[in-house]
Amino acid sequence: MKMMSYNENQIYFLVISVVIIKCQFFDCHDDPGFSPDEGPLSELQFTWLGALQYIHMKNGTPHYFRVPRVILISRQFVLSTAIDAAQIPEGYALGNVIFGDYERDEVECRVSIDDIAAGTECEPAILLMPIADVLLHPEYKHFGAKYSVALLKLITPVKSKYMLPACLPFKDYIVDRNGRLTKQRLYHIDFPTDVPRDFIEEEKDVQRISILPRELCFLYEKLDNATKMTQNRMTCTTGCGFHSGAPTLVHEHTGHWSIVALSHGGSPCPDPLRVRRPPAPPHHIMIHPYVPWITAAITGKAVGAFAKDDPFGFIMPRASIYDFIAHGWVGHWWMGGLRCYDRGEAAEDLFKFYHEIFQINPIDAAKGTLIVCVKVGMPYQLGQPRVWELDSPIVKVRIPMIKFYDTYKFQVEAWGYNATESDESQNVTDFDSGDRR
């Protein structure tokens, strides 16, 4: 990577590029630079986590102890457990979906670029969104399966550009390539209190958990009212005291936060001073088997219309004429290149080899490394960064800037893969096919 020029208005630098075939093209939570530690969060994150209110039909007060969690998975749909959406407490009705950290964009805040440059910040707000419709999965609606999911349609789409949904999984992260349970520790995100009330002061809590062998799920209690199919769609983990609907996620190496499972709730953590047998491990509903139904319900497309590894069905070719396709904002990140949207198996050949905050230093990519994606992270969507000549040996990136009167930071990331290894594997494949012939 080589530096070209610099002035107070814009920055230029050069990178190397390559061409490949497929991409998944939709917006969801993509933050490559954030890997939280266990415990309370000290910064605004995971704004897609919400809570479901039950409202008393006579006096309008919320339920005093049951507050399920929900997850925003598109701008107009949230995901919950089927039991939370269907089994409403007596005398109550479905109320609002509440997002305690609604991150407003500059349009909603009514701040200009000059205001931002002068140090004006857009404070987070609380969003109360009425529910327009409830979509229960057929296995619960018709067969009463205990472990299942539901979709809640919001009355209007969420408007803020910074309220990105959580990503749906592209593959089953519970098992590894060999079909065994993954040993990877996952992130469990939730509000620390059982009944969130004051969302202005409410924090989020991060817990790292691991998947347990399936035989431990039924060791202490027998699973009732669940078909064999839904038993295969549930898992159990370490930890305790989980709340219904709280998500467990994996942070993909591309930066995407993908939902692995929803907590089914359960008993609180036992008193450590009392000697008892270990409690039953908490149960979770795996999300990957429900992705075709979820995406079909949201988009209205037949399940068979979706690509194998792309739940939203966006498949686009890639060549030099697409320098200006898929170049735009996703939350606080500006994406330059179609492969910035790659996830799952399509992104296994990608790795991040360059990451700089604020200052841009000239660097040289490793020999044989080819860059296919450039990401620019900024606090606000200022102007339109540009990446072009992606399919040539030299790629150019332009970042517009303005004069600031306060501390201002941005990030630039370049993603590539080892072209030498790809060429060697291709040659081996051609040789093997020749032998077979």
UniProtKB/TrEMBL annotation:
Name the record gives this protein: Peptidase S1 domain-containing protein
One annotated GO molecular function: serine-type endopeptidase activity
Superkingdom of the organism of origin: Eukaryota
Any single biological process term in GO: proteolysis
Peptidase S1 domain location: 20-299
